[in-house]
């Protein structure tokens, strides 16, 4: 099952995992868009089921996921749903309400996907969680610090989970994409180093998940650069990261 499956990376991943003998649970908030993704998956031979749910609603998520798992055990759960936000053209940041929204959707939403299924996976000693974080998790970005914090939380949560489950037969993959063409990414204006087309990013993310890698930075070069940047003295690192400034123009997200 895939959260945030109505468009963008989630929809592209659903199509890549679709095939004969596969059942894909598509979770999102846009019924019409989910129907379109379901039709694309069905054209590739997959069975589909659709769940309308806000990932920040823990009770609703638990009910939906446990119902799906009772009907047909889930063996791969991809926590992809997310929102973005940050410094707008007039210099304003999101404020506390916007920051809370980012944490609830990006970090708590990922936890709301994992935690209900975890006992089931442990009982079966099988399954895989894939958590979609961001390269922004590696170094706080000046134009979207709250978003960076939410994705850093996903990274830390996934790494801790992976270590905790290392002997339980359960794989945990933490994927850190960089810039790629999507409705969310299009809301950011400015330089985007090593940006990729959506299809290429989806191919690389799907490959990493299939190989059950523990951690994947995509592209690797940008991930390495951000890791090295974090090792510099804070003042120097701040000046260098500030050279890549972006502005956020809110639009329609997944």
For this structure, the CATH topology is Rossmann fold
Q: Would you report the number of β strands?
A: 9
Q: What is the CA-based Rg, rounded?
A: 18 Å
The CATH H-level superfamily is NAD(P)-binding Rossmann-like Domain
Give the CA-CA distance, first to last residue.
Answer: 16 Å
Strand content: 5-15%
**Could you say which overall geometry the principal axes of the C-alpha atoms support?**
globular
Oligomeric state of the chains present here = single chain
Task: Please state how the strands of the largest beta sheet are arranged side by side.
Answer: 4-5-6-8
CATH architecture: 3-Layer(aba) Sandwich
Structural class by secondary-structure content: alpha/beta
For the record, the CATH class is Alpha Beta
Number of helices: 8
**Tell me about the biggest sheet?**
4 strands, parallel
From the structure above, extract its key features.
47% helix; 254 residues; Rossmann fold; alpha/beta; three-stranded parallel β-sheet; 9 strands; four-stranded parallel β-sheet
């Amino acid at each position: 099952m895939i959260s945030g499956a109505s468009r963008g990376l989630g929809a592209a991943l659903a199509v890549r995992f679709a095939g004969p003998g596969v059942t894909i649970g598509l979770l999102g908030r846009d019924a019409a868009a989910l129907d379109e993704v379901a039709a694309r998956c069905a054209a590739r031979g997959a069975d589909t089921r659709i769940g309308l749910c806000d990932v920040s609603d823990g009770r609703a998520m638990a009910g939906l996921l446990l119902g799906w798992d009772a009907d047909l055990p889930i063996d791969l759960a991809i926590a992809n749903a997310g929102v973005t936000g940050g410094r707008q053209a007039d210099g304003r940041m999101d404020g506390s309400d916007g920051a809370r929204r980012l944490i609830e959707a990006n970090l708590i939403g990922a936890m709301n996907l994992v935690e209900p299924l975890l006992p089931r996976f442990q009982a079966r000693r099988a399954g895989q969680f894939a958590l979609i974080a961001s390269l922004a998790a590696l170094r706080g970005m000046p134009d979207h610090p709250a978003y960076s914090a939410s994705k850093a939380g996903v990274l830390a949560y996934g790494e801790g989970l992976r270590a905790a489950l290392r002997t339980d037969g359960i794989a945990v993959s933490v994927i850190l994409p960089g810039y790629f063409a999507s409705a969310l990414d299009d809301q950011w204006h400015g330089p985007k180093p090593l940006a990729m087309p959506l299809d290429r990013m989806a191919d690389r993310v799907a490959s990493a998940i299939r190989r059950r890698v523990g951690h994947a930075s995509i592209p690797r070069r940008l991930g390495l650069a951000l890791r090295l940047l974090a090792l510099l003295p804070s003042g120097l690192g701040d000046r260098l990261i500030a050279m890549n400034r972006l502005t956020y123009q809110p639009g329609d997200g997944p």
